[in-house]
Amino acid sequence: MGAITGYYRAMSCDDARAKAKSLGSAAAYVGGGVELVLRRNPEVATLIDLSQCGLDRIVKTTEALSLGSQVTLAAISRDADVKAYAGGSLAYLAGHIAHNNLRNMITIGGAIGRNQPWNDVVPHLIALGAYVEIQDDQERVMPLSDFIGHREPGTLILGVRLPLVNADLHGFLWRFTRTQQDISLLHCSALIGVQGGTVSTATVVYAGRPGGTAVYPKVAAELVGQPVRAETFLRAGDTAVRSVEVGDDLRASGNYRRELVRAAMTRLGEEMTGVAQ
Amino acid sequence: MRVSITINAVQCLLEIEPGEILLDILRREGYVEVKGDCRTGDCGACTVLFDGKPIASCMMLAAKADGHAVTTVRGIGDQRNPHALQRAFVHNGAIQCGYCIPGAITSAKALLDENPEPTREDICLAMDSNYCRCTGYEQQIEAVLEAARELREGGSR
């Protein structure tokens, strides 16, 4: 990282944003710093440290569970409110990504800001209906799925909001990996609501296809209004195989991934019908 | 830039470059018990405690450590005054070449500080950062279980 000549400790979000604005593309915010160290951007000369900006808290309000952008994955995995949210799928994910050393360093804001194609955090947050709180010229809150597609350089990520209206739904997570620490060959996340034995709401997200996150409303539509039975999820699997774009890379062929797309729906069905082992 | 890092309970004022990583600073200052191997955050040889939590020092910007406490395996115990974990690693034959052991013991120390009665699964998850290519992991797990028992029964530390 020979190109780094400045390190600025911002004392507030306004301070950080002003510094970033003045330096433009020559500056980068530092969360855990892991990605900055691993993948150095020669254009960046100044790092803006956010650790003094009060963004390292998890707060439950009447409307949302708010995770500050500097909260680490390890902290998320241990938090009682996150463990209780949507069946605890996010807490489980945050406690099993990469390894313990990195989970103590990687921040949720960094994971969103970098959003590498192998990212497992962003697809799961999108499935949970997360919003992102940002600061550019003003503070704004927007669906994370919108933010990922239209992110402006220099935008400061303040945190993530998980709406409490989704807290009692069922969060589903399936990462198919070669080893526990490997990146996903295929990632499937979902958020399912059930009323009276019928699927009332559904969001289905696939990632690692390879490539980034995509929401699949067609697959979700196959589930909504249907009884929670294995056949429902098998049908959704057929739709998913037709809808989800997959490709080849060094880890797996597109054909193999296509089978995983179907398997993810089968696994979701097993989990929802209570027969998952 | 100048930073103040408390290393093994000693406050150190250090002159660093803004882009330097913590591993390089520690080794330059003589903490060579912190090993550097992969430098991609994968192997765990460079594990240190950062305010009591294990991190990969090869992935941490040294500037981020300003005002924080860093503990290396030497700060946990040494040959004259070994920690229960260090004794247990020797007793269980959990050490062969020894390169990964500083990191493994550091991760185990963080676990036992937080969870004095870990299960095998807890140990595997807490030490999933630390690769060993000699002895394997079974002896290390036994060593952590033994140290945890000793500490619960009032061992020295």
Topology diagram in text:
The complex is a heterodimer of chains A (277) and B (157).
Chain A: E1 6-9, H1 13-23, E2 27-30, H2 34-38, E3 46-49, E4 58-60, E5 64-68, H3 73-78, H4 80-84, H5 89-94, H6 100-103, H7 108-114, H8 121-127, E6 131-135, E7 139-143, H9 144-149, E8 156-163, E9 170-176, E10 186-195, E11 198-207, E12 214-215, H10 217-223, H11 230-243, H12 254-272
Parallel strand pairs in A: 1-3, 2-3
Antiparallel strand pairs in A: 4-5, 5-8, 6-7, 6-8, 9-10, 10-11, 11-12
Helix pairs in contact in A: 10-11, 11-12
Chain B: E1 2-7, E2 10-15, H1 22-28, E3 47-50, E4 53-56, E5 69-71, H2 73-76, H3 84-91, H4 101-114, H5 120-126, H6 138-152
Parallel strand pairs in B: 1-5
Antiparallel strand pairs in B: 1-2, 3-4, 3-5
Helix pairs in contact in B: 3-6
What does this structure look like?
The complex is a heterodimer of chains A (277) and B (157). With 277 residues, chain A is α+β, with helices and mostly antiparallel strands. Chain A has three domains: 6-49, Uridine Diphospho-n-acetylenolpyruvylglucosamine Reductase, domain 2, CATH 3.30.43; 58-166, Uridine Diphospho-n-acetylenolpyruvylglucosamine Reductase, domain 3, CATH 3.30.465.10; 170-272, CO dehydrogenase flavoprotein, C-terminal domain (Enolase-like, domain 1), CATH 3.30.390. In chain A, 35% of the residues lie in helices and 24% in strands. Chain A is built from twelve helices and twelve strands. In chain A, the strands form three sheets. In chain A, strands 4-5-8-6-7 form a five-stranded antiparallel sheet. In chain A, strands 9-10-11-12 form a four-stranded antiparallel sheet. In chain A, strand 6 and strand 7 form a beta hairpin. The longest helix of chain A is centred in the C-terminal third of the chain and has 19 residues, at 254-272. Chain A is globular, with a radius of gyration of 19 Å. The mean pLDDT of chain A is 93. In chain B, helix 3 crosses helix 6. In chain B, strand 3 and strand 4 form a beta hairpin. By secondary structure, chain B is of the alpha+beta class. Chain B has a five-stranded mixed sheet. The mean pLDDT of chain B is 94. Chain B folds into two domains: 2-75, Ubiquitin-like (UB roll) (Roll); 76-152, [2Fe-2S]-binding domain (DNA polymerase, domain 1), CATH 1.10.150.120. The interface between A and B is medium-sized, with 31 and 28 residues.
